[in-house]
């Protein structure tokens, strides 16, 4: 487990770049934290490190944003997902296991968590408003 304190959005993006630089094909990143914790800001840094030149925006309403970098990058925000049927319709499993990089906000909306993923937890530190970012690899049983 690795923790880092970020005092600005620029620092969060910079830390995201360091996370993104270590990713390889098939990696799954879970961005966790409350609304406004900086998940999309972190995603910007991760995606930038993967060689994407496009502007990264929140996929809150599109659910999935796809980018082309040194690997395909899928940025997903599952906050608005209400049931498993929506996930099936979107082809989430096929996307996650397609060999690109999957960055998932609100991973707890998946009916079954991946067997291995990188968990990035963003917590707002009061009263400074800094972000405490904790990174750890989660490994569990393989999905059935």
UniProtKB/TrEMBL annotation:
A GO BP annotation: tRNA threonylcarbamoyladenosine modification
Keywords from the named record: ATP-binding, Cytoplasm, Magnesium, Metal-binding, Nucleotide-binding, Transferase, tRNA processing
GO molecular function: ATP binding; metal ion binding; transferase activity
Main location: cytoplasm
Cellular compartments annotated: Cytoplasm
Keyword Nucleotide-binding annotated: yes
Highest taxon of the lineage: Bacteria
A Pfam cross-reference name: TsaE
Family named by the database record: Belongs to the TsaE family.
The protein's name in its UniProt record: tRNA threonylcarbamoyladenosine biosynthesis protein TsaE
Organism, scientific name: Marispirochaeta aestuarii
């Amino acid at each position: 487990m690795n923790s880092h304190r970020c005092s600005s959005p620029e620092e969060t993006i910079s830390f995201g770049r360091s996370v993104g630089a270590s990713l390889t094909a098939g990696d799954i990143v879970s961005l966790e934290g409350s609304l406004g914790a900086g998940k999309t800001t972190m995603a910007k840094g991760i995606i930038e490190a993967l060689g994407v030149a496009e502007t990264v925006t929140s996929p809150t309403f599109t659910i999935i944003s796809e980018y082309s970098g040194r690997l395909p990058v899928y940025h997903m925000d599952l906050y608005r997902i209400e049931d498993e049927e929506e996930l099936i319709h979107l082809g989430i499993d096929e996307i996650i296991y397609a060999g690109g990089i999957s960055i998932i906000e609100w991973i707890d909306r998946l009916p079954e968590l991946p067997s291995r993923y990188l968990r990035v937890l963003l917590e707002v530190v009061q009263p400074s408003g800094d972000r405490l970012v904790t990174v750890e690899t989660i490994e569990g049983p393989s999905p059935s």
